[in-house]
């Protein structure tokens, strides 16, 4: 099975400059242009069984903003299943276009896809309640191979705490034939294995954030990215694609959970990141 992951599009018709985050978004090239660049490039890499949108599809967007994103994805992939989950920047307008914010289950080939909502609008940490675990446990109680989609990761990054219930989540999916946990939120690609389950974080289609754990900072790049997953039985192969030459936008340092902005010349190109 082959899956195309698009994550953290963060589209909104207009951005402000009210805070550090809004100023970052205002400096970037259009998220829609980046999204189309990713979709055009993805078409060159074969066929897919589904497209997964792993949260922050819009950024406090209007219903029309969500319709715009949906129509662009359907323009490029009109005939295959699209599965969406909300992120912490997705408000209630999400539901007017993508339906419920509740967990959903899908069957594709020999795989059960569990699309989880571990987000809460305006809560950057994410959450997963006892009721959510109860739903998950019931769906995990089957011998079928499983793929889990969720926005908030189980690992901590500079300025990005892990899901508060990460440890409990890892324990709950152990020995359940969960092949892959697909995550977003981080704006950078990463892959790792925990208890024989493959965990993957997809890049953002809008901008990337490279973490520096030595000084607890992150540098943001105006660069579009997406990820492809090839699954054969219990084996997962991921390929992450970055579409345009990275350009530094700014850096943030974190002190006592507060952002310190470090301005960088937006026209200064970077060889690699």
Low-confidence regions: 265-273
Highest-level CATH class: Alpha Beta
Compute the CA-based radius of gyration.
18 Å
The biggest sheet amounts to: 6 strands, mixed
The number of distinct structural domains comes to 1
What percentage of residues falls in helices of 4 or more residues? 10-25%
Supply the CATH architecture. 4-Layer Sandwich
What are the key terms here?
single chain; 273 residues; alpha/beta; Purple Acid Phosphatase, chain A, domain 2; 6-stranded mixed sheet; 5-stranded mixed sheet; 6 helices; 15 strands; globular; disordered C terminus
In a few lines, what is going on in this structure?
This protein is α/β, with parallel strands linked by helices.
Describe what you observe in this structure:
- The chain is an alpha/beta fold and 273 residues long.
- It has one domain: Purple Acid Phosphatase, chain A, domain 2.
- Helix content is 21%, strand content 32%.
- The protein has six helices and 15 strands.
- The protein has helices at 20-27, 31-42, 63-76, 94-98, 130-140, 166-173, and strands spanning 2-6, 50-54, 81-85, 104-108, 111-115, 145-149, 178-183, 190-194, 197-201, 208-212, 217-221, 225-232, 235-242, 248-255, 258-263.
- Strand 4 and strand 5 (111-115) form a beta hairpin.
SSE layout:
Elements: E1 2-6, H1 20-27, H2 31-42, E2 50-54, H3 63-76, E3 81-85, H4 94-98, E4 104-108, E5 111-115, H5 130-140, E6 145-149, H6 166-173, E7 178-183, E8 190-194, E9 197-201, E10 208-212, E11 217-221, E12 225-232, E13 235-242, E14 248-255, E15 258-263
Parallel strand pairs: 1-2, 2-3, 5-6, 6-7, 7-9
Antiparallel strand pairs: 1-12, 4-5, 8-9, 10-11, 11-14, 12-13, 14-15
């Amino acid at each position: 099975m082959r899956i195309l992951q698009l994550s953290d599009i963060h589209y909104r018709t207009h951005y402000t400059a009210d805070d550090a985050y809004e100023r970052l978004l205002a400096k970037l090239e259009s998220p829609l242009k980046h999204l189309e660049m990713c979709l055009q490039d993805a078409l060159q890499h074969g066929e897919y069984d589904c497209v997964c949108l792993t949260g922050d599809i819009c950024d406090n967007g209007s219903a029309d903003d969500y319709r715009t994103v949906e129509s662009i994805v359907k323009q490029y992939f009109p005939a295959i299943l699209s599965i969406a989950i909300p992120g912490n920047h997705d408000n209630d307008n999400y539901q007017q276009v993508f339906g419920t914010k509740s967990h959903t289950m899908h069957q594709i080939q020999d795989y059960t896809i569990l699309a989880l909502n571990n987000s809460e609008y305006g809560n950057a940490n994410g959450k997963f309640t006892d009721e959510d675990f109860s739903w998950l446990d019931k769906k995990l109680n089957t011998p079928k191979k499983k793929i889990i989609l969720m926005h908030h990761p189980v690992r901590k990054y500079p300025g990005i705490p892990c899901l508060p219930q990460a440890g409990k989540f890892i324990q709950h999916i152990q020995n359940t034939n969960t092949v892959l946990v697909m995550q977003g939120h981080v704006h950078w690609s990463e892959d790792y294995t925990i208890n024989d389950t493959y965990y993957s974080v997809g890049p953002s289609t809008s901008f990337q954030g490279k973490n520096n754990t030595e000084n607890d900072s992150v540098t943001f790049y105006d660069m579009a990215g997406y990820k492809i997953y090839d699954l054969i039985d219990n084996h997962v192969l991921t390929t992450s694609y970055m579409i345009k030459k990275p350009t530094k936008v700014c850096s943030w340092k974190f002190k006592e959970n507060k952002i310190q902005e470090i301005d960088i010349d937006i026209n200064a190109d970077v060889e690699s990141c």
